[in-house]
Design goal:
13 helices, alpha+beta, globular, 514 residues
């Protein structure tokens, strides 16, 4: 795949011959040394993706060889479709390490059904894309949109970690699935990871990263006694290569691949799908599209397009907005359907203004804790972060530990989940040019809430213990607390216990969250 990217970027004429030489050699070797239970066997779908790309654009008269190679890769590779429906899939934290339970392998496997559908045309492959996402969400899902895998599948407890490479690979899988299957859910999942899980595990200057991130993360320290199971004591430190070097090499692919897939072109070149909203410009065979926006921190996206012949512009309308509108040039805005793709014809120059109103949403998670969303962003409790440099390398690279400078064991007041605005107040700070939006200092928005310390909520294995069951009973005083975008934080609590007025003191009736 790296050679494909290099060729797309440079057009270097030596790339395609090198790719075919490699593929012929690999195919020949597979007859004597099958893929089997190996890393290559687990990741067959990524090589098939490149083989199909060659079939689409650069088959070189070797179509049958490429079809046969893809078939062999599929036959010798892991049966991911069977894995997600079979009896061996762990419904709690994995108790043994296999290549099937490995987090990054599962992140890459998300796309195998969609990738193979292009060759099999079997609806069960198409459907399996949805089934495996649902399975991972149910048994290992986290509020940030990724699944827990502190090396291996780790359940739903929000203090269990997720490897950075898993985030990057799952993002790319969702981008691929949207390109193949066209369901906006896949694009929204890629966006959710790109705007939440990815920036949350990288320092704002991008010189340090973690191996494992946690949705409820109260420190990032060397921890011999740790809550994660399969990784080492430095796994949550921020640094050059904490625990293992793979994420150092891989994290920088996340946003570039997301950017590559912001605008997708149909095979006939007549349609352009704006799948991810970000400030980008593209030019393709005479069509120029420029996107101007501060999304996801702003509700407005402006798209300017110049089409030398009639083209169709296709816009993703997010599923979480209820009153989205579109305005063409200076005409009156009109409503569009949420969770849909909206088509507009372009012939000449056109300006499209999209408005996606964002409201605060509550999702109940582990022990009925609340995750707070607005638009595509997850919001988390702000914790004062105290960085301590542990080691310095060349350039600006350093290793850090991070400890909390303020309490983290808060519950927030939430009267009614369906009307969170009663208790949660959104504040639009606005992006200031020159600042990093995914940072505490530069975060363009916040949500104000009321919270109370929960004395019984403590530390287990140097991490936040499981959130106490909500609604909680706490008689501590109300305190104003700040929720920041998840991606702006290095420490955070994202699955928050809640209390309401009925549950603040012991009572003789049950408490309901509404």
């Amino acid at each position: 795949f790296a050679l494909r990217q290099y060729y797309e970027a440079t057009g270097n004429s030596s790339v395609l011959p090198a790719m075919f030489k490699f593929l012929h050699t690999a195919h020949q070797r597979m007859f004597t040394i099958p893929l089997g239970e190996t890393w290559s066997g687990a990741r067959w779908q990524d090589l098939v993706l490149t083989v199909h790309w060659l079939l689409d654009y650069h088959s070189n008269g070797e179509e049958q060889f490429l079809w046969d190679l893809a078939e062999t890769l599929h036959e010798q590779g892991f049966d991911w479709k069977g894995w997600y429906t079979g009896p061996d899939f762990p419904k709690t934290s994995a108790d043994k390490a296999t290549l099937y339970t490995h987090g990054v392998n599962n992140g890459q496997a998300l796309k195998s059904g969609g990738v193979w559908y292009r060759q099999s045309h079997n609806k069960s492959d198409w459907d399996s894309s949805y089934q495996r996402i649902k399975t991972l969400d149910t048994y290992h899902g986290q509020a940030s949109g990724i699944f827990a895998c502190d090396e291996h599948l780790a359940g739903t407890m929000p203090s269990r970690g997720t490897e950075l490479c898993t985030v990057v690979e799952a993002m790319f899988s969702y981008e691929v699935l949207f390109g193949i299957q066209g369901d906006i859910m896949f694009a929204e999942r890629a966006e959710q990871l790109g705007f939440n899980a990815l920036p949350a595990t990288i320092t704002s200057d991008m010189w340090a990263h973690q191996y494992l991130q946690q949705d409820n993360e109260i420190n990032a320290i060397h921890s011999d006694d740790h809550i994660w199971v399969f990784d080492g004591p430095d796994s949550t430190l921020y640094g050059l290569a904490p625990n293992y070097g793979c994420c150092t090499a891989n994290f920088n692919q996340g946003w570039p691949k997301l950017t590559q897939n912001t605008v997708m072109v149909s095979p006939d070149g007549n349609s352009f799908v704006i799948s991810i909203y970000a400030p980008v410009s593209i030019e393709y065979k005479g069509t120029v599209i420029s996107i101007d926006t501060n999304y996801p921190f702003n509700e407005t996206v402006m798209v300017n397009a110049k089409c030398t012949e009639t083209k169709t512009l296709i816009f993703r309308i997010p599923s979480w907005t209820n009153t989205a509108t579109v305005r063409i040039n200076t005409y009156t805005p009109y409503p569009v359907t949420s969770g849909d793709l909206h088509n507009i014809q372009c012939n000449g120059e056109i300006k499209v203004t999209l408005h996606f109103p964002m409201t605060i949403r509550v999702q109940r998670r582990y022990n009925n804790a609340a995750a707070i969303y607005r638009g595509p962003l997850l919001y988390s409790l702000e914790i004062m972060e105290e960085f301590k440099e542990l080691k310095s390398y060349e350039f600006k690279s350093k290793d850090y530990q991070v400890t909390p400078g303020t309490p983290w064991n808060y519950a927030i007041h939430l009267t009614n989940d369906s009307q969170p605005e009663i208790d949660l107040k959104f504040v639009n700070i606005g992006w200031m040019e020159g600042t990093v939006p995914f940072s505490i200092a530069g975060a363009p928005s916040k949500i104000m809430a009321t919270g109370r310390i929960v004395d019984s909520w403590g530390i287990s294995h140097n991490a936040a213990s499981a959130p106490p069951m909500s609604p909680v009973t706490t008689n501590n005083k109300d305190t104003s607390v700040i929720l920041l975008p998840f991606g702006a934080t290095d420490l955070r609590i994202s699955e928050l216990p809640t209390y309401n007025d009925l549950c603040s003191i012991p009572v003789m009736y049950s408490c309901n969250q509404g």
